[in-house]
Specification:
single chain, alpha/beta, 14 strands
């Protein structure tokens, strides 16, 4: 029976992955987070072990469980543009510095680590669809907006260096706009924000000119991929995109689609980036993954299209009276 350690297990991806593991495998899940709200349904499962703690404080517990487990998945991160802008130091401290001990413990005990990165690392590149071996084009260091992308890029360099020089069995995955039921909008995630605004009749706020284009990936497809990457020998030492390339949509058209699906009377309002974040904020005009590698490695094919994603989020929101 395999054992997996998930740090940030109460988060959006962490709890969906835990549910998939408990429902479809005989693995044991050891999870840490600062609260247990989402994982309460798992607490009576004898294969789910939860510790309420802080990854920056409870380091001995984490090292002990890295030694004990077969696979390590550190999902704790600050991934919100508002925080990049206002508190870039906190982003570096959590997204880079806090991850160093986990990586080094995995080196020490020769444990597989499935390391999360982000499509943000492609930065201002216009070479779409983004390939894993493509150039990373960051903005100026005076713009805190790029602190998250740079933190994750350094994490990648570090993990891959340990793989090359010390044999660390690492798999790095870059997520592209993961969405789904039970995702909170409090950190700026666009789909739950749009759904909440539409259902409540408030203005649907689109940042910038709304012409920025994205592809959205259902969380069920992401956790399917993560579970298989955790078992794939061919994936070790690789950087791998996880996303959905089937439908690229502008954020303005996304707002219109949410408005139509919810039959909302809400107006769609443009909010300048300077008002939403700060003067001079830079956004990526397009963000499309090249999925060739992951399809070849594990046979990945996204199952849920954009309409399915929105229908699932809207249904969950309506059923739970707004508790996304």
């Amino acid at each position: 029976m395999k054992k997996i350690l998930i740090l940030g297990v109460n988060g959006f991806i962490g709890h969906h992955l835990s549910q998939r593991i408990l429902d479809t495998t005989d693995w044991e899940v050891y999870g840490m987070d600062m609260n247990r709200e989402r994982v309460r349904p798992f607490l009576d499962n004898p294969r789910f072990h939860f510790f309420e703690g802080d990854i920056t404080i409870n380091k001995e517990w984490i090292e002990y469980h890295i030694k004990k487990c077969d696979v390590v998945l550190p999902l704790v991160a600050i991934a919100t543009p508002a925080t990049y802008v206002k508190d870039p130091l906190r982003v570096f401290e959590l997204d880079f510095e806090a991850n160093l001990p986990f990586v080094r413990s995995c080196v020490k005990y020769r444990k597989r680590i499935i390391f999360p990165s982000t499509s943000e690392v492609y930065g201002k590149s216009t070479d779409v669809p983004f390939r894993e071996d493509g150039d990373l084009v960051m903005g100026a260091s005076i713009k805190g907006r790029w602190s998250y992308a740079c933190s994750k890029a350094i994490d990648e360099f570090l993990a891959l260096a340990y793989h090359k020089e010390r044999g660390l069995p690492v798999v790095v995955f870059r997520l592209f706009n993961t969405v789904g039921p039970r995702q909170t909008g409090r950190y700026g995630m666009v789909i739950p924000n749009f759904v909440r605004q539409a259902i409540s009749g408030h203005p649907i706020t689109v940042y910038g000119d709304g012409e920025q284009r994205r592809c959205f990936t259902d969380v069920s497809d992401v956790v399917w991929a993560l579970l298989r990457l955790a078992q794939s020998e061919e994936a070790v030492g690789q950087v791998i995109n996880i996303g959905n390339d089937s439908r690229e949509v502008s954020i303005m058209d996304l707002a219109r689609l949410v408005k139509a699906k919810t039959k909302s009377p809400s107006e769609i309002v443009l909010v300048p980036y300077a008002q939403a974040y700060e003067e001079g904020f830079e956004d990526m005009p397009r963000r499309i993954p090249d999925l060739t590698k992951i399809k070849n490695l594990i046979g990945y094919e996204p199952k849920v299209d954009l309409d399915g994603v929105l229908d699932r989020v809207i249904e969950h929101f309506m059923t739970n009276e707004g508790r996304v």
